[in-house]
Every structure is written in structure tokens, then in C-alpha cells.
Specification:
The complex is a heterodimer of chains A (about 120) and B (about 100). Chain A is mainly beta. In chain A, about 0% of the residues lie in helices and about 55% in strands. Classes of the chains: A mainly beta (about 120), B mainly beta (about 100). At the A-B interface, β5 and β10 of A face β5 and β10 of B.
Chain lengths: ~120, ~100
């Protein structure tokens, strides 16, 4: 059974940093592109960042470029999101997801809530 | 690419045939997925490539469409289908629609 378990969320002040982790199991992690998708409270879904099988290629939405860094450790079957210079508009539940062959998000974790507030 | 879902709220009776709409701002070549999100849960993939049913999803769910206009159909609405449904295009980067909230009348 595919499992994705996020951790690392919490309350953080604007301008500070936070690192999210996602532990994967039940599938061959290195066979999948991975992504982070977020959802602000009572809002819709928003893709944040994606990473290739070996981590050699990364992609970001414009609003987080230069502030967020996606990475992975295939030996540990883990995905990460380093978030720096956090803003109030980054407040959301962050989901770890697998990416299907052409770009759909096949499996999702339960999410971790990040609240950016003073 | 802008994705517009309609209606934003839909109320239907158990057993009804329900149709949800998703319109893209440009041709997305069937690169469209549908997700179901129940209250307090993560989204779940229902349909990918516009009409391919994800493994384990009940056959009452189906997807159709082409070009800019796509539809998710539930052939016979069940109580457990109460949720918000999102569409997603992945033809050019990726964007989601704003969702359709489905309620039981």
C-alpha cells in the first residue's frame, strides 16, 4: 500500500524558515517524480514544486522561486521542502504527492499545516 | 492556463446522474485529471487523461471531453460522494480549477 507521511509543519513567524519532510513507503520511490501541492484554508489546490527521479531537475511556481527548495533522498525514500523567507500567503496545508506519467497527482499524503503569522 | 469549474455548488438527490463541468482557457489536449476531496481529507485521484479511471475508483465515475471542455459524471449519486471535486490540467505546467462542492439534497 502506498503511504506518504508528511511532517515538519507548524507555526512560524514571517521571514523565518521551515523544512517539511515526506516519508514514502509501499512503492519504489526512485521510480517517481514527486511534488508538493498546497491548499490555503478553505481554498483550492496550488502546485508548489516538483522534482525528477534522481533530483537532477527541479521546478517551482513563480511565487516560491528563490525561497523554497525541493529535494529528495532516494536511499531514505524521502522528499523535502525547505521553505525560507516565509510569508503570510504561504499559510496552507502542504501535501506530498507522486506524479503520474504525464503530470497527474496519483497518491497524496495526509498533509501538514504551515501557519505563517507573527 | 485558467481552469473554470461550474457550478461552484451542486445539490442533487441520491441516485441522480450528476455532471460537473471544467473549462480550460485553451486546448489542453485531454491532459486533465479529476480529484475528489472529502472534508478534512487529502484529495484523491479519480480520473486522469480526461477519461481513464484510476485503479480502485467505482465505475459510477467517468470522465469525458476534449479540447477545452471536460465533464465528470457520476452515474448514480451515493451518500459517500459528498465532497468537493477539482479538475487539474497538466498540458502546460499545471493548474487546478476552483472546485465544485457536491451536496445531497
Amino acid at each position: 500500500e502506498v503511504q506518504l507521511v508528511e511532517s515538519g509543519g507548524g507555526l512560524v513567524q514571517p521571514g523565518r524558515s521551515l523544512k517539511l519532510s515526506c516519508a514514502a513507503s509501499g512503492f519504489t520511490f526512485s521510480d517517481y517524480y514527486m511534488a508538493w501541492v498546497r491548499q490555503a484554508p478553505t481554498k483550492g489546490l496550488e502546485w508548489v514544486a516538483s522534482i525528477s527521479y534522481d533530483g537532477g531537475s527541479t521546478y517551482y511556481r513563480d511565487s516560491v522561486k528563490g525561497r523554497f527548495t525541493i529535494s529528495r533522498d532516494n536511499a531514505k525514500s524521502s522528499l523535502y521542502l525547505q521553505m525560507d523567507s516565509l510569508r503570510s500567503e504561504d499559510t496552507a496545508t502542504y501535501y506530498c504527492t507522486t506524479i503520474g506519467n504525464y503530470g497527474w497527482f496519483a497518491y497524496w499524503g495526509q498533509g501538514t499545516l504551515v501557519t505563517v503569522s507573527s | 492556463i485558467q481552469m473554470t469549474q461550474s457550478p461552484s455548488l451542486l445539490s442533487a438527490s441520491v441516485g441522480d446522474r450528476v455532471t460537473l463541468s471544467c473549462k480550460a482557457g485553451q486546448n489542453i489536449n485531454n491532459y486533465l485529471a479529476w480529484y475528489q476531496q472529502k472534508l478534512g481529507e487529502a484529495p484523491k485521484l479519480l480520473i486522469y487523461n480526461a477519461n481513464s479511471l484510476q485503479t480502485g475508483i467505482p465505475s459510477r465515475f467517468s470522465g469525458s471531453g476534449s479540447g477545452t471542455d471536460y465533464t465528470l459524471t457520476i452515474s448514480s449519486l451515493q451518500p459517500e460522494d459528498v465532497a468537493t471535486y477539482f479538475c487539474q490540467q497538466y498540458n502546460s505546467w499545471t493548474t487546478f480549477g476552483s472546485g465544485t462542492k457536491l451536496e445531497i439534497k
